[in-house]
Amino acid sequence: MYAESRAGQAEVPWDLPSPSAHLRALDLPAGEGRQALVVGCGPGRDAEYLAGLGYRVTAFDISGTAIDLARERHPGTAVNYLVADLLDPPADWRHAFHLVLESNNVQALPAPIRAAAIPTVGTFVAPGGTLVVLAAATTRIDSDGAGPPWPLTRAEIEAFGGDGLHTLSIDQVAAAGTTLPTRWKAIFTRAAHQQAAR
To answer: Please, which of 115, 131, 148, 182 could form a disulfide with 188 given CB 3.0 to 4.6 Å?
Structure first.
């Protein structure tokens, strides 16, 4: 879709100019140079927002076109944009990031791929770190199963808390006036002293 968009043949519906409103609403601490990872970053709006908070951000997407767009739109950025696969991430990302953001990506995956992707996300969280998950809880197209996005179930959201993570909060929040009337906002953490399960 990103390639078709660059060729003027499609429009990417989630390619918006501003960072996610639900991300901006979070009370995130100043980055102070801590490492952050943005999963499925697209053209980089959320990654740049976190960099503006002082995080050292790595942002990845499986789409090379999306990464090219991110680099073009943010010349001189401090964000490290990479092409990578959530289902086969670099080994050195395990437990390496103080903040991990999964925003609106897993909801775009068909169920079998989603089941493999969800447990991987939490493995990036360092001891003492935080995972933020923002995802569709309902859509206006639930009745016929069309998608993506496909809304995540409560059980799927809870499953992000594997690999030794502790659930801090799971909330459904309203997103009035959008095609996603309610959203999940979930926050998980790893204890500073904890050794995660292998």
So the answer is: 131
Per residue in 107-132, pLDDT (tens digit) is 989 889 999 999 999 999 999 999 99
Q: What is the pTM of this model?
A: 0.88
Integer angstrom CA distances of residue 131 from 70, 80, 124, 157: 23, 19, 9, 12
198 found inside a domain: no
CB 156 within 8 A of CB 113: no
The answer to whether the CB of 188 falls within 8 A of the CB of 168 is yes
d(C-alpha 161, C-alpha 157), whole Å: 8
C-beta of residue 124 within 8 angstroms of C-beta of residue 164:
no
Summarised one tens digit per residue, pLDDT across range 76-101 is: 999 999 999 999 999 999 999 999 99
Q: Are 118 and 186 in contact (CB under 8 A)?
A: no
Beta-strand relationship, 56-61 and 97-103: unpaired
Give the range of the structural domain holding residue 103, as residue numbers without chain letter: 1-7+19-190
